[in-house]
Amino acid sequence: MEYDFTYDRATRQFSLKLSAEHDVLARFLLDEFGQQASAYQPLLSQLQALKAYDTLRFQGKEYLLEVEHAEVTLRHNTLFYEAGDTPQQTSAELDEEALSLDDHGMQTQCGLEDLVKLLQAWQQFLSGG
């Protein structure tokens, strides 16, 4: 996974740029954890503790991050709910129509190892190291 980290001295803001297919992951990380390196540690620790066939579900404010067999899937919560806020279907049951929303930045996938490396590098960048 390719990424680029920047710091704007004028605004004092950090930014994380990923490829278009992983842009939703950058939005998730910044929205969920912000710009404090320590905020990422609980998720990073959980991810690092996973074994090859373990699973993990992390429900964020707007996204659900799932790890299954070392594959990470990040989906926006709207993919799971209809207008009435009742669960429409589980992630394993998403239909073709819901998956087509991927073009609009609603979901992405990557490997667990890639996500851990990204989080470690981003955390180090945020802490000034």
UniProtKB/TrEMBL annotation:
Q: What is this protein called?
A: YacL family protein
Q: Name one Pfam family in it.
A: UPF0231
Domain of life assignment: Bacteria
Record's family? Belongs to the UPF0231 family.
